[in-house]
Amino acid sequence: MNQRKGKQTVEFKNPSTILQTASIVGKKEGDGPMNEYFDYILDDDYWGEKTWEKAESKFQKKTAELAMRKAQLTDKEIDYIFAGDLINQCVGANYAMRDFDASFFGLYGACSTMCESLSLGAMVTSAGYAEHSLCITSSHFCTAEKQFRFPLEYGGQRTPTSQWTVTGSGCAILTSSGDGPYITHITTGKIVDMGVCDVNNMGAAMAPASADTLITHFEDTGFTPEDYDLILTGDLGVVGSDILCDALNQKGYDIYKQHKDAGKMIFDIKGQDVHAGGSGCGCCASIFCGYVFKELKAGNLNNVLVMATGALMNTMTIQQGDSIPGIAHAVRVCRSL
69, 144, 234, 264: which could form a disulfide with 165 (CB 3.0–4.6 Å)? Predict the structure, then answer.
């Protein structure tokens, strides 16, 4: 039987195995330092479609198909799909998955959605409700800019704290049986709002939620930073990463050695002029489904805590002058039990 540990953490007595992953990214991401870990890199961010939104849906569909092909599965063998994106009403995922013959849950956790999908997928597979769950998210720089900030044609000046939304998608297929890597614990985040109102400083808005979830994970489980080879945050970027590490240090947890952030890893921060780093659902998803999974399979990583972070706002709340609530979900992944 699965066991609750503390208020927010679940320990799986029958851990799910991550059977296979896939990742597809855009050209700018492919020009970055992690390019060898992605399965496919696009030359054109439209990918032959007429709009960026249609291109993002294609990202998800093709990434899911690639993961299933690598896992030697068809959509009829997928029991549940957990998918999300940043476009209004999650239409990126809705349109991407409409041709798949599998039960579907559409999710929105902003940039935390990949770990939200992994958490829910692990719950249903570990509990025996599914043999295979497909967990997938995506984001696209152009769709996100148009929806949350300014049309690209506007050519507005980006602030130093702003982040570059990743164009890409990541997919992980979980199974109730297998030989790892295993999802052994999840720590579900709470909404944390410290009053940050600057839409161009997502790192500061999300960092308090990531600190809250990470401290809760350590308190619930008894694990320490030293129990992990890698503590991967989703897309705090340069600003949010510093805030997180300082906040944990004040609570007696030194994570400087183990911590990396997907938003800092996916781009050459200075060389590619992305200001404070990467963001978006596809940021954590592509780094986890690319770099982390492959390093786990190769034996270069053994114990990883991946924690995707999200800013739970939209243009309406910002126009009304409201602050930005944050959320962070953590997933513990081990190469062996």
Answer: 144
Q: Which residues of the chain have pLDDT under 50?
A: none
Phi, psi torsion values for 78, nearest 5 degrees:
-90, 120
Per the DSSP assignment, residues forming a β-bridge with 165 are: 279
pLDDT tens-place string over residues 253-282: 999 999 999 999 999 998 999 989 999 999
Q: What would the two tokens of residue 5 be?
A: 């540990």
Task: Please give the biggest Cα pair distance in the chain.
Answer: 55
CATH 3.40.47.40 domain span(s) along the chain? 3-175, 182-334
Question: In residues, how long is the chain?
Answer: 337
Round the average pLDDT of the chain to a whole number and report it.
Answer: 94
CATH number of the 3-175 domain: 3.40.47.40
Q: Which CATH class is domain 182-334?
A: alpha beta
Query: Any residues with CB less than 8 A from the CB of 271 and at least 6 apart, and which?
Result: none
Distances (CA, A) of 22 to 49, 64, 240: 21, 7, 27
Collapsed DSSP state (helix, strand, coil) of residue 295: helix
Answer for the pair 172, 200: CB distance below 8 angstroms, yes or no: no
Task: Count, in order, helices (H) and strands (E) of the chain.
Answer: 11, 14
Neighbours of 318 (CB within 10 A): 16
Measured CA to CA, the distance from residue 153 to residue 159 in angstroms comes to 17
